[in-house]
């Protein structure tokens, strides 16, 4: 795809958790598997200073949810929003200022915290505190300069545990952990560039050593648009590896929707004023489980005709989803589980006869579409209204919206893009003056830049530049340095992270869950000769699969060291049996012979030792 | 035996007795109608005042003026709250911020009586206002907490 002709514009926002302690209180930042007390709240949208109610907040409030908050033994009243915030954490502010310097940005003179209205319940107070720290910087990615518009410091939201009906449960352990938010300008013009920018910002953040590590500690919001499309924000992506996929998929989606718009205009489609019909009677004998279930619990089947929308709801020729899933996501805001549309029917147990009945009842003409919603009448009506609203928006093109990322690289509608009316001043926190002395001391103590680290790794540990680069880019630099300096064997350590990890991932395991302690054990055992480096992938796979410790994994796999005499014996035997081959090939026979011996001894002896013995024997023979 | 609260373990080094106390301090309980003149009269006689303010530690605007005059004359003014649970927080309302500007120092959730005794002891250790402030804001024996559990 030629992204330049498509006018692709991407900007990303990185949210990175800091390890400086919580932003407005002194609670621990560890996550807890168990909870303590609970309290329940309802949240309502409030007007901003300008007297407006934010559209995203309003839609959220229409869901009529209530929120159950689980405290952990170390939750405090600030987290419950029962006590005013304490002074902002100085160390967190200093970490943000450090990034300010690393990105060549201009710090603000005074840091003023604001309240950003968020009423999905993820903050106990109904708002998230956020402060602008710096503006106007840039980073270099390859040949290109990407503008960095702002650095903000925010508090992280509570952790969502579950959602049942109208109740959402959150746990307070994550609430209030400081987040640095770095937003780039929309200068990124290809999916690949988006990934490079995220990698670069990630390695700069890690360079400060003031960030938390591990899954979920860094999250990205991606703003994407193509020309003729609209700004769409895919919010909260955690997998850096999928970043470019989210961009690619969103481009496809916007192009498909622009195609839909074109077709609708050609057909002369007009705003739909929905005439909702109750067709419950037609489905009395239905075999469709969804509809049957709804009717049994006193629900109704409501249907509406969508003039001139025929064939635009299902997949397009290239298999890209179109209006159907979008309308369904909007319908779900009203509390229904989903909807059926004519492009996917008959199907899901709805028969051809039933489709024909609906078609004639609604007077559907060729080129029209229809949709069905089965649920309690009020909910179903509201859902149809929402879905029709979304269908109408398709005539205008691609609506601006916030979408949730899915694990397969796709995304799903979550809410309208928030407006500018959702900020108002946080009056409980005093403004903080950025004085020159603090900035000067930060400037004098800047951390080692990623490039310098790569050069040092090559120099000090004798690994290749490519390896060093990859370690820093993929975020294994701290682990590598700790293990390589503690246990030696830098090549082995680098290969574990750069080769073994991807192999394990291919097997469907998640090596990122291996603890540093496990890796220390592996290297310690390796050093003491419990097994050879060739056995490391096997052992790590076993640890991940069975949850054993290293010693147990070695035992289960039956890996044992073998004494050198036995190794020599195997080599002698192989050399003897292949004598003719060796005489024919001379010293070139080493490679093939290595293969045979390694197969027999794999995991028990280091390859280097075998190669030494073999070449010695071959020389003797010749 | 299990301890339900944090406690200070017995120190290993030699123990030194610091029992000097300067009793020239007063504890003032703020209430609506409290006369600034009364505050001023007491402030003329003492070296340190512990104020027990309302909820977040507030006093009336008139008393903010008295605090300003007292601090100017070298009196140490510390703020506590009349509430048994919860903490002083002078950042929330403008009166509180005015109190900070006037030179009052918040003592968080330290009880007024504790603060009163601690202030007399601190004034017995040093005459330097900065040192006294440091002592008052250092948690010596669990006299205040930074967290209030849910």
Question: Can you tell me about this structure?
Answer:
The complex is a heterodimer of chains A (622) and B (150). Chain A is α+β, with helices and mostly antiparallel strands. Chain A is 41% helix and 19% strand. Chain A has 21 helices and 21 strands. In chain A, strands 1, 4, 6, 7, 8, 11, 12, 13, 18, 19 and 20 form an 11-stranded mixed β-sheet that branches. Chain A has a 4-stranded mixed β-sheet with strand order 2-3-10-9, with no helix packed on it. A 4-stranded antiparallel β-sheet of chain A has the order 14-15-17-16. The mean pLDDT of chain A is 89. Chain B is α/β, with parallel strands linked by helices. Chain B has a single domain (25-136), classed as Rossmann fold (3-Layer(aba) Sandwich), CATH 3.40.50. The relative contact order of chain B is 0.17. Chain B has 5 helices and 4 strands; from the N terminus they run βαβαβαβαα. The chains are: A alpha+beta (622), B alpha/beta (150). The A-B interface holds A 25-27, 36-37, 39, 71, 73-77, 79-80, 82-84, 86-87, 172, 427-430 and B 56, 86-87, 89, 91-92, 97, 146-150.
List the helices and strands and how they pair.
The complex is a heterodimer of chains A (622) and B (150).
Chain A: H1 3-6, E1 9-17, E2 38-41, H2 55-62, E3 66-70, H3 90-102, E4 106-107, E5 110-111, E6 113-117, E7 127-141, E8 144-155, E9 159-164, E10 167-171, E11 178-184, H4 191-207, E12 218-225, E13 232-237, H5 243-267, E14 277-278, H6 289-296, E15 300-306, H7 323-333, E16 340-341, H8 352-361, E17 369-375, H9 377-396, E18 401-405, E19 411-416, E20 423-425, E21 432-433, H10 436-444, H11 450-461, H12 465-473, H13 477-487, H14 490-506, H15 516-527, H16 536-546, H17 550-557, H18 564-577, H19 579-585, H20 590-601, H21 607-621
Helix pairs in contact in A: 3-10, 4-5, 7-9, 11-12, 12-14, 13-14, 14-16, 16-17, 18-20, 18-21, 20-21
Chain B: E1 25-29, H1 36-45, E2 48-53, H2 61-72, E3 76-81, H3 94-102, E4 105-106, H4 112-125, H5 129-136
Parallel strand pairs in B: 1-2, 2-3, 3-4
Helix pairs in contact in B: 1-2, 2-3, 4-5
């Amino acid at each position: 795809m030629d992204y330049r002709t498509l006018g692709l514009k991407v900007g990303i926002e990185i949210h990175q958790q800091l390890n400086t302690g919580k932003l407005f209180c002194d609670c621990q930042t560890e996550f807890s598997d168990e909870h303590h007390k609970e309290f329940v709240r309802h949240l309502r949208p409030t007007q901003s200073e300008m007297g407006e109610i934010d559209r995203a907040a309003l839609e959220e409030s229409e869901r009529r949810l209530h929120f159950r908050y689980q405290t952990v033994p170390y939750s405090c009243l600030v987290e419950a929003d029962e006590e005013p915030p304490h002074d902002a954490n100085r160390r967190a502010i200093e970490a943000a200022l450090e990034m300010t310097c690393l990105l060549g940005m201009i710090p603000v003179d005074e840091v003023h915290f604001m309240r950003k209205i968020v009423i999905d319940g993820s903050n106990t107070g109904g708002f998230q505190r956020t402060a602008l720290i710096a503006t106007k910087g840039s980073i270099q990615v390859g040949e290109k300069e990407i503008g960095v518009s702002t650095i903000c410091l925010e508090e992280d939201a509570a952790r969502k545990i579950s959602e049942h009906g109208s109740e959402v449960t959150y746990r307070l352990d994550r609430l209030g952990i400081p987040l640095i938010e770095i937003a780039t300008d929309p200068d990124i013009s290809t999916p690949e560039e988006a990934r490079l920018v995220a990698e670069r910002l990630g390695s700069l953040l890690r360079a400060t050593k003031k960030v938390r590590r591990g899954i979920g500690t860094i999250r990205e919001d991606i703003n994407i648009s193509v020309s003729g499309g609209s700004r769409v924000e895919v919010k909260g992506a955690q997998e850096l590896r999928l970043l470019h996929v989210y961009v690619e998929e969103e481009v496809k989606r916007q192009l498909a929707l622009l195609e839909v718009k074109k077709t609708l205009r050609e057909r002369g489609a007009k705003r739909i004023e929905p005439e909702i019909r109750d067709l419950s009677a037609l489905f009395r004998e239905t075999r469709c489980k969804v509809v049957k279930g709804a009717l049994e619990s006193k629900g109704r089947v409501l249907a509406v005709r969508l003039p001139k929308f025929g064939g635009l709801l299902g997949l397009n020729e290239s298999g890209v989803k179109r209006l159907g899933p979008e309308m369904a996501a909007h319908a779900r805001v009203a509390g229904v589980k989903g909807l059926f549309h004519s492009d996917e029917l008959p199907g899901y147990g709805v028969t051809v006869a039933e489709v024909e009945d609906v078609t004639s009842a609604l007077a559907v003409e060729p080129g029209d579409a229809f949709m069905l919603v089965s649920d309690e009448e009020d909910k179903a009506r509201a859902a149809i209204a929402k879905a029709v609203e979304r269908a109408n928006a398709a005539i205008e093109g691609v609506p601006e919206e916030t979408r949730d990322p899915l694990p397969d690289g796709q995304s799903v509608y979550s809410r309208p893009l928030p407006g500018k009316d959702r900020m108002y001043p946080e009056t409980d926190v005093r403004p903080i003056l950025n004085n020159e002395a603090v900035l000067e001391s930060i400037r004098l103590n800047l951390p080692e830049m990623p490039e310098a680290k790569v050069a040092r790794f090559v120099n000090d540990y004798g690994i290749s530049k490519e390896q060093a680069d990859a370690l820093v880019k993929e975020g294994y630099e701290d682990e590598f340095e700790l293990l390589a300096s503690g246990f030696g064997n830098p090549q082995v350590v680098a290969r574990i992270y750069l080769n073994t990890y991807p192999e394990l991932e291919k097997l469907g395991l998640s090596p990122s869950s291996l603890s540093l302690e496990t890796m220390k054990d592996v290297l310690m055992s390796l050093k003491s000769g419990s097994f050879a480096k060739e056995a490391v992938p096997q052992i790590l796979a076993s640890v991940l699969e069975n949850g054993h410790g290293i010693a147990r994994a070695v035992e289960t796999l039956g890996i044992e060291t073998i004494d050198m005499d036995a190794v020599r014996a195997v080599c002698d035997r192989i050399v003897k049996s292949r004598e003719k081959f060796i005489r024919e090939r001379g010293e070139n026979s080493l490679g093939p012979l290595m293969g045979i011996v390694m197969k027999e001894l794999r995991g028990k002896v280091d390859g280097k030792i075998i190669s030494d013995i073999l070449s010695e024997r071959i020389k003797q023979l010749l | 035996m299990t301890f339900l609260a944090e406690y200070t373990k017995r120190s290993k080094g030699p123990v030194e007795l610091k029992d000097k106390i300067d009793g020239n301090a007063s504890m003032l309980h703020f209430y609506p109608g409290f006369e600034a003149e009364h505050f001023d009269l007491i402030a003329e006689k003492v070296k340190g005042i512990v104020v027990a303010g309302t909820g977040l530690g507030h006093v009336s605007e008139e008393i903010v003026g008295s605090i300003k005059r007292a601090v100017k004359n070298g009196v140490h003014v510390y703020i506590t709250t009349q509430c048994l649970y919860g903490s002083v927080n002078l950042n929330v309302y403008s009166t509180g911020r005015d109190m900070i500007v006037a030179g009052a120092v918040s003592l968080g959730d330290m009880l007024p009586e504790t603060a009163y005794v601690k202030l007399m002891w601190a004034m017995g250790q040093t005459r330097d206002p900065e040192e006294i402030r440091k002592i008052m804001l250092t948690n010596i024996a669990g006299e205040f907490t930074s967290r209030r559990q849910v």
